[in-house]
Amino acid sequence: MIARLVGICLGALLIVGCAHRAEVGSTSAAYEVRRDRVQSSKAYVAVSGDLATLEKIVKPGHICGAHSFPVALGAAVKTSIVRTVSAAHSSVAAISTASEAGNDGVLYTFALDDFNPRLRFQPGFFVPTADASVEISIKTTAVSADGRELATTTVRGFGQESVDGQCPVGAEALGKATEKAIRVSLENFVGRVINQRLD
Asked: Would you indicate the residue range of the signal peptide (predicted)?
């Protein structure tokens, strides 16, 4: 009787699968900031709530289909944005809303436009390969201390990563692909906003 119950429980676990959280590290595109665009002024960074708390559960296809892969990137995005803007200004204040900005520096706002993570497992000779691809787009604006709009654009980033192994490696592939997508989007932000003449 006990063996039968154990067997039923193990079978249920196999059907339900497991959740493998993707770890997303912070990154930066500070290396893209041109020296002649570094300012001695203060900057304010306002990251919208939907971007600062961004999380999504990714389900793979047929292989490893019983598993889920939550990816929480909001904190990494916010930290990465602040690190990038810090390369262009003497000091940076992270604020919750644009209304909290002072009139002594440029205000940069960031809001989520789209986030599309994908994960598929390809069969292999000994072990499958986790193929992750991530697309993110972020709406951003720059506003001068006196309230003039300096720039408005949407920046996009794409990241891809493949890792060989059993189902749990999908989290590693997804985390690395997400980090790459964030970095590319911030590289585009620097090129379109910070490295342009904001005066």
From this structure: 1-21
25 Cβ neighbours under 8 A, 6+ residues apart: 76, 175, 179
Parse the chain into domains and list their residue ranges. Answer: 41-194
Summarised one tens digit per residue, pLDDT across range 126-158 is 899 999 999 999 999 999 999 999 999 999 999
- What is the model's pTM? 0.88
- Calpha distance 66→78 (Å, rounded): 31
Q: How far apart are CA 192 and CA 197, in angstroms?
A: 10
Fold (CATH) for 41-194:
Double Stranded RNA Binding Domain (3.30.160)
CA quadruple 100, 34, 73, 69: dihedral, nearest 10: 170
The C-alpha R_g of the chain, in whole angstroms, comes to 21
Q: What is residue 198's predicted lDDT score, i.e. its pLDDT? A: 62
